[in-house]
Each structure stands twice: as structure tokens, then as C-alpha cells.
Design a protein that fits this description.
The complex is a heterodimer. Chain A has strands spanning about 5, 10-15, 20, 25, 30-40, 45-50, 60, 65-70, 75-80, 90-95, 105, 110-115. Chain A is an all-beta fold. Chain A is globular. Chain B is an all-beta fold. Chain B is about 0% helix and about 45% strand. In chain B, the strands form 2 sheets. In chain B, strands 2, 4, 5, 6, 9, 10 and 11 form a 7-stranded mixed sheet that branches. Chain B has a 4-stranded antiparallel sheet with strand order 1-3-8-7, with no helix packed on it. In chain B, strand 5 (about 45-50) and strand 6 (about 55) form a beta hairpin. Classes of the chains: A mainly beta, B mainly beta.
Chain lengths: ~120, ~110
């Protein structure tokens, strides 16, 4: 069965430093997609970055990059040059390609950026 | 400007009452979803719909109902059978059925019991 695990309930990072948020997943499918979303205190979910299971390069979007290690089934989010506005909940999610629709979410990691 | 609109932002329910949460999208997406989020937790899928007039139960559908009469609209009714409805409800949509497409979310509705 699909499963997403985020083992860090909370993380602190100094402003302008980099931080890594961990995500491991479990699936029996060969085709799947991995997503990271940001949820500020206002509640909306903001899509950050996507990695496909067949993508050979790690995905990058501005200050966000995804450290994809397929054999270890991990998809860690790296935020470079942290800003105060990065303080939020971060969710890792997975959608199986053969299943089509269902996306499952991890429990999230709350990131606190210190000035 | 395309997006998803959820209303109301805050909703209060009395005991024994059904309430309906609205979700409208103008992104021309085929798939729509409803999630429930409890404090400090991730999202759990209530219902999803791939096309008009079709929807499937998610992981926690008991006590909820939906309809999909129009592509743009996917309202969620929280019935009196849902004994613990206090939560944050998020509606989402995506281009179906491709797994590389992210979901787009509304701003959510916070439901509380009076």
C-alpha cells in the first residue's frame, strides 16, 4: 500500500541557511509522482515542486530542489537561502501512475525560520 | 484569474444539522477532490470525482456526501451522521488523469460545532 513518512514534526533553521526536509515513501508501482506543498498559517496549500519516478535529474524550482534517491525511496526537499516567509508546514505527497487519481499526503513538517 | 473558490471561509454547525461547503473552479480541470485536515495532521481524502456525474469514496467518506452536476462545481455536504466534523476542509482540482500534474487547492473552510 502507498505510504508517505515525514519523520520531522518540526525543524528550525537560521535565516539565509539551507535546510533539508525528509520524506520517505512506499509503493509497489514503477510509475509515480512525488510532490511537495507548502501550507502557510493562512491554510492554503501551495505547490512547490514535482519529481517523476522516471526522471533522472533531481527537480529544481528556484530555491527549492528535490533530492530524489529512488533506491532508498526518499524524496527530500532542500530549501536554500531560507527566508522568514518560508516558515510554514511542508507536506510531501505521492500519486501512483497506475492508480491515476489518488494522492496521499504525509503528516507534514513545520519549519521555523529564525532571524 | 483562474483558481478554486471555497465558501464560506468559516462555518458553524448545530447538532443534527447538515451543512454544505461550496467549491467552484474555473481551471477547466476534470478531477476534483475534498480533503479533511485535523490540527497538526496531514490531509485525508474524503471524496474525489474524475468527471461530471461520477465520484468515488476516499478514505474517510462516512458521514459526508458530494455531487458533481457541473464540471466547475463539487459541493460537499457534512451530514448529521458525521459525529466529529470539526476540521479544516480543503477542495482541490487537477488535470486528470496524469500523475505529473499537481493539485490546485482552494483556501479552505473551517467547520466548527456550536
Amino acid at each position: 500500500a502507498q505510504k508517505i513518512t515525514q519523520t520531522q514534526p518540526g525543524m528550525f533553521v537560521q535565516e539565509k541557511e539551507a535546510v533539508t526536509l525528509d520524506c520517505t515513501y512506499d509503493t509497489s508501482d514503477q510509475s509515480y509522482g512525488l510532490f511537495w506543498y507548502k501550507q502557510p498559517s493562512s491554510g492554503e496549500m501551495i505547490f512547490l515542486i514535482y519529481q517523476g519516478s522516471y526522471d533522472e535529474q533531481n527537480a529544481t524550482e528556484g530555491r527549492y530542489s528535490l533530492n530524489f534517491q529512488k533506491a532508498r525511496k526518499s524524496a527530500n526537499l532542500v530549501i536554500s537561502a531560507s527566508q522568514l516567509g518560508d516558515s510554514a508546514m511542508y507536506f510531501c505527497a505521492m500519486r501512483e501512475g497506475t492508480g491515476g487519481f489518488k494522492t496521499i499526503f504525509g503528516a507534514g513538517t513545520r519549519l521555523f525560520v529564525k532571524a | 484569474d483562474g483558481g478554486i473558490t471555497q465558501s464560506p471561509k468559516y462555518l458553524f454547525r448545530k447538532e443534527g444539522q447538515n451543512v454544505t461547503l461550496s467549491c467552484e473552479q474555473n481551471l477547466n480541470h476534470d478531477a476534483m477532490y475534498w480533503y479533511r485536515q485535523d490540527p497538526g495532521q496531514g490531509l485525508r481524502l474524503i471524496y474525489y470525482s474524475q468527471i461530471v456525474n461520477d465520484f468515488q469514496k476516499g478514505d474517510i467518506a462516512e458521514g459526508y456526501s458530494v455531487s458533481r452536476e457541473k464540471k466547475e462545481s463539487f459541493p460537499l455536504t457534512v451530514t448529521s451522521a458525521q459525529k466529529n466534523p470539526t476540521a479544516f476542509y480543503l477542495c482541490a482540482s487537477s488535470i486528470a488523469p496524469y500523475s505529473n500534474q499537481p493539485q490546485h487547492f482552494g483556501d479552505g473552510t473551517r467547520l466548527s460545532i456550536l
